[in-house]
Each structure stands twice: as structure tokens, then as C-alpha cells.
Amino acid sequence: MQTSVVYPKRQLGIRGRAIAAKVITYVLLFGLSISFILPFLWMISTSLKLSQDVFTYPPSFFPNSFEWTNYPRGWRVLPFNTFLINSLIVTLSNVAGNVLSCSLVAFGFARLNGRGRNILFLLLLATLMIPREVTIIPRFLMFSAAGLTNTLWPLVLPAWFGYAFFIFLLRQFFMGIPIDLDHSARIDGANNWQILTQIILPLSQPALASVAIFAFIGNWSNLLDPLIYLRSTELYTLALGLNLFRGQNFTQFNLLMAVSIITLIPVLLMFFFSQKLFVQGVSLTGMGGR
Amino acid sequence: MTNAQPTPITTPPNRKPKIGGMARKEERSFYLFILPWIIGFLLFDAGAIIASFGISFTNWSALSAPAYVGTLNYSRLIADSVFYKAMGNSLYYGLGSVGLGTIVSFLLALLLNQNVWGMSLFRTIFYLPSVVSGIAVAILWIMILHQDFGLINSFLAWFGIKGPGWLVQPQWAMPSLILMSLWSAGGSMVIYLAGLQSVPTHLYEAAEIDGADTFQKFWTVTVPMMSPVILYNLIVGFIASIQGFVTVYVMTNGGPANATLVYGLYIYRTAFINFQMGYASALAWVLLVVIILITVVQFTVARYWVYYEGDLKS
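ok -> C-alpha cells follow
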């Protein structure tokens, strides 16, 4: 360890080393970037190929011709318009339910005092650790007993009762808003509901947007719940419809890829227009979205 | 403090009980605001866990009434070779994807943390795959990993290597899924990057004055300061990976020869294909216990490698 300090070569090449380090960094970054992007390009390329060009050996990276009609053709193989509407219903009501319920609960934890608050908050965080497999069977049996299987209700209802990760995210954000604002509003006669809706929420738009985006993406790509609860094809969501499509046409990768890309568009748009909010949500909680 | 509160000249006579009343009122509001979560917790979390435990002692097809069978499901489980296979597969996947994923995402974060030009562009590129998940991505990777027409094998063919049948050969199927999971390493990368950027620069400066080189700075400053974040990611990542199964369901459906039959998929099949709710609940409870044990072990081992800076503990 000490020897490296007086190592003669080191002093000679400090500048050279710095440059070499930069070069290596950029080479690594470019190499890795290409390998991270390549799957997307491959997906687009496959979606534009003719069926017979998908399975050629050796495979060609670029399509021979651009078959844009693969997109409408793939979309028409199954009632994807219906699936899209179902997905929108499920996803948007999850977003609404999560934003509303999690705001209320987060406000309670961030701003109001009550016996057992700390223990309840720990319990809330602990629910993040519960494996889904443990709760999914009783949940299914519960919805089944209520006669709600094969409806969209099981996919929509739970969001209205809060979700620990979002509550945590919002609570962290609310805690950063000066409490003096609450106090002065209270002196002016505002009640808790008014403080939440007129002071906290307007100031928390970035955090609310993070929650909305995470909820959207999580539900948009959710396959497990639709798979368990939905039987009739006319109730299928896009994810489940895509799964059905895959099962029926597993050799038509060009059409499969085309429909897959269509289903990813909302997620991609959201990501590109609000990347800051993602990163903010992540750094606020130290957790990813899922 | 004391002189800030003048003598209570104008305090009405009933002031004192009113403070208690206000606290009680606030408590009532507190419970009112968190009521949605309380109901959800009792119904969907706590209630479900207790119910699951009860169900695990029954034979229940969900179509007829449950029949109490004692510990039969658990003794069946002990003798069930598929149970061990599935548990082993999940641990394999969890260790592989979380272990390699941590290395890759940490490396990416370190690269991006070097004040590089175009940092936000690179961050976008690395982060994007972790955002798009689910079935569309699973289908894409079936294509990428295809034995004859896939992207990876055609890349290997450039170098004259004949790639294996990634998803169809039992010994390659799980490594394929682990490889695929690395594509979404950008999610934890963002967390690490945020952590790296909050390491105080004066620590690096002090290390430099003491003559530390880049590697010494990395091992004596970066790693200890980042260790709580790494621990957190290990725990959460492991829990997530051990219960994930949708990708596997779409890509291999547990095959070939049960090589990718992960635990979650086994529970799904038992409960929702074979309608053995009792046995599936027993399987789920074992999973819960295993996850708790692993988390406890991770926390115990963490004492030896995680560094909490005095006041950073919260």
C-alpha cells in the first residue's frame, strides 16, 4: 500500500493515466450502450420483416423490405382494440385509486399524530416484503366468494386501499414540505382536508406524477392478475391478449413484435417525457418502482 | 423556550381539557386519513396471510368446500421432489440475477458517475430497458435467444462460435434467464448513481491527501459509504427475483425438463391450473418463511460489511 505512493511510474504518467481512464470509460460506455439498445433495434427490425425473412440463416439485422402493414395486420389478428380499452380502464382506475388513497394515507403518516403511528408505519413498510404468492391465493378466493372473478374488479379495487411503496414515496415528499405552511393555514381556519388539497398536493406535483407514472407502468404490463382473474376474451387486457397471441401464433414473430411494440408505446412515451420524475421517485425512496 | 411562552393571561378556564381533546381529535383524523390503507391491510395483507395459513391445512379445490387435512400438505411437500427442484431453481435464479445484477448495475453507476459527457443520454439508454418489462420484453427475448435465428447466436457466429440452444437446453435455460435479467440492471443503477452522488467529496479529498489511489479510494470510501444502499438492493432484489415468474411463464413455462420451473410458477400451477389451493398455500407459506430467513441472514451478515455513518442510520 505504501509502496504505491512512491512508485515512480505513477508520477510520470498521471496525465496519461487520466486520459487512458477517460478513454476506457467511454469505450465501455459505448460498448454497453450498444448492447443495451440492440434488443430494441432488433425488435423494430423484426417487426418490419416479412414472415419468411424472420427465419433466415444467418439472420439479417436489417429487414429486406419495410413491411409497415405488419402493425395493422398484427393488431387485427385478435380484438386488440377491446384489449386496449380494458387495459386503459384497469390502468387509469389504478392510477386514480393509487394517487387518491396513497395521498390520504401519506398525509396521515406525514402530518398527523396518533397512537401507534410508528408501528403502523413499520407494518406498512413490512408489507413490501410479503411475497405475492402468499396473498394471491386468499385474494383470489375472496374475490371468488364475492362473485367477482372474470370481471375487472379484482384488478381495480385493491388500488383504492393504498400501496406501501407509493405511500412511502409520498410521505417522504410531504415531510419535506415546511410544516409552517400547515400551521399558518390552520390559524386561518383550514382543516386537514383543506391543508392536504390546497397546500400539500399542489406543492407535491412531481411526487404525485411519479406515483401516477409508476402505477401506470406497473399495471399496464401486469400479466399475473389478468391471468388469474380473467376468463372471457372480451375482458382481456393488452398484456393478456398479447400472451394469447403468442400462444396462437408463436411462429409469426414479425406480427408478435409489431403488436409488442404498440403495447410498449405508452410506456416509452411516458419514460421519455418524464425521466426526471422516475429518477426523482427513485432517489426519494431509494427504491425502484416495482 | 420558557420565556417564549408568556403567562397564560387569556387562557379560558376550560383550556386544559381542550388540549387533550385536540390531540384526540388529531388522532381521530390520523386514523381517518390512513383508513383506506388499514382496510386494505386487514383485507389484502394481514387477513390474506392468516387465511393462507389456515388454507394450508385444508384440501380445497375452490369449487367445493374445504376439507381439513391437518399437516398433510406439509408432509406431502417434504416428499415432493418438484418442490425441492423449484426452490433450488428460484435460489439459483435469485443468486445469479441479484449477484450479477448488483455487479453490473454498480459498474454502470460508477461509469456514469465520472463526469462523463452525455451522461444523461447514457443514463437514459441504460435505464430504459428496466422500465419496459412484462410480456412484450419476454417475447423479444425469446427471439433474441433463439437457437438458430436469434441475435446472440448470430453474434457468436461472427466469431465462429456455435451458440447453444439457450432456452431449449436444460443447462443453458436458467443462465439465459439470468443474462436476460441483466438487461434491466438500469433500475438499480439509478439508485446506486443517486447514492454515489451523495457521497461527500471531502472523504475522497481526505483519502487523496493520505495518498490513496483510485482503487484504494474505491474500497475505502465508495464501497463503505454505499454499503447500506447495496444491502437494501440485495434484500429487495432477492425478494423480487425469488417470487417473479411471469417472464419464465411466458418464455419457457418452466421447461425444459423443469430446468426453469421457479417457485412462483410452481405455486401458480398448483393453485390456478390444478386448483389445489391447500397445497399451494402450504408452498406459499414455506416461501414466506424462506424469505424471512434469508432476510434475517442478510441482515446478520450485513453487520460485518455494511457501514452506517453515525447519523445516517435512518
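Confidence is low (pLDDT under 50) at residues 1-6 of chain A.
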